Amino acid sequence: YEKPWEADECVQAVWKMACYTHFPQCKENEASYLRPCASACEGYLHACEVNCCDDGAKCSFTHHKKMSDGTVLTEEGYDLHSAPSPHCTG
Fold it and tell me: Is the pTM of this model over 0.70?
């Protein structure tokens, strides 16, 4: 879409979520970024009518994976805050 802001709500939600994910805000005075707000993901799920039978479409989550060297890799989804918020992008 060359003009996603003129498209339907689903396309706009995908566009916003992609921007927030790939171009997040930086934390003030720090060299880290603010994860996207869960409200952006929830807006996408609603606008695009995403329904999973196993409740698999979750915006906020924390996964831990133990690596072969004994370290633990933590992966987190969208930030639990709703936009606008100083704690997340969106």
Answer: yes
